[in-house]
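Table 4 source record.
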Amino acid sequence: MLKFSNSYIDLGEQFFQRSIPQKVAAPKLLLFNGELADSLFFTEAQQKNHEVLSQYFSGNELPDGSSSIALAYSGHQFGHFNPNLGDGRAHLLGEVIDKTGIRRDVQLKGSGQTAFSRRGDGKCALAPALREFIMSEALYALGVPTSRCLAVVSTGEVINRGLAKPGAVVTRVAASHIRVGSFQYFAARGNTSSLKSLLDYSIERHFPEINSADISDVNSNNFSEEQRILKFLEYTLDKQITLIVEWLRIGFIHGVMNTDNTAICGETIDFGPCAMMGTYDEKAVFSSIDEYGRYAFGNQGKIGQWNMARLADCLLPLLIEFTDENGSDTTSSEKAKEQRALEKVESVIHQYTSKFDEAYYVMYAKKLGMNEVNTTLINDLLAIMQAQSLDYTQTFLLLTKSLANSIKEEELIRKLGDWYKTWIATLKQYKITKLEARNLMKENNPVVIPRNHHVEALLARCEQAVTDNENQNSIDKPKIITDIVDEFLHVLHSPYQEIDATKNYQDTPEDNDRYYQTFCGT
């Protein structure tokens, strides 16, 4: 079925704990991602064999070639460092090469206790599993770098989360699960040997161009070790900027940007407390555990830099080790070497602000149909949206439609006043036709997003359907779940065009999400 390899295991036993998923009594395949399965070389016959799929993706049986492990990592959680985290309810089965030649991790989540579970049961309730499937597919279709879900399997178990909830296992596919926290795990232990192994592995897997002679410095065939370390930090930083700016473009709030949830590959992972912003508010927070707004919508860019600074902290010991390379600094004291290394990483981290601001304003320029940045125009619009509590997605959609619809134009002039007229004048000044602007805006402004009230309504219906029929073997639970979510997923897979069912999911909630909260799902 899947052709597994296990390159991460080759790094050594200190990087993981061997752990087998816990068997479940009555697995049923509820959702299966056929398009993703195609990319992983599943045949049509294999995709139709739901019994086999339910056994594999519940963890009851391990596919041939897989080697189940729980990854070790640390993490800053809401700013507080925990040196001992790791996969407490997840099992990495191994890696597969997809049709594009990219190595992908295949991981079960909610598959039982591991050595890192502490006091947790290692299980996942149905609703969080379905949320990750729905939200990751929505982000993928919106063009946001993200992990994806291959399957959701109900387990037939009851999970205690204050209330009795049906259990499930979700299969996650990601470019890797190497995190900032993975580096922190070894840095905290002073294990520079493992830190170096992790660095080399991460470069080879995610940034092989660093090892390529094509971009080497003029004096050698390859980067020096010092250059490799700094390039790795720079490339990782760039990926984080790209990711966060894409979140901001669509109004996504991750909710738990801890360093253990910050993937080196620059993909979105961990969808537990995530939410979509309706009414524009830089301080928008929905996560129940984010009491002080650390990960609010408008803070995400700054937290990205903070997380990259924590990665830089981890790389300092390696950088210090190589500061005297090629004869340089050979007579320097250790303190001088440390200072030089610190200056080197700080120079990379300090680039974040200018790089982020540039990407941020280019993104908003495109949302306004412009290839040139006008920061005043962008900032003024966001200030108006904040002051008037305008819906983020609908405002940009109306702006897009207004370029071809005089009624929409009149509506926006009433809402935005002189700003709207200034925008139209700016397009003319930049010699951008309304058609050109509209086409660019249609590529960057979705017509539909996974609005929180629709996501929650679907999750509640699915949960109730499984609960009601858990002991009725005559009921086809997979078909029930498919019937409930199919239309929504179909709409979310076409976020930039209005299909017949799009209108069913464009409405805003009656209370504008005033009392809406999300939870981590553990």
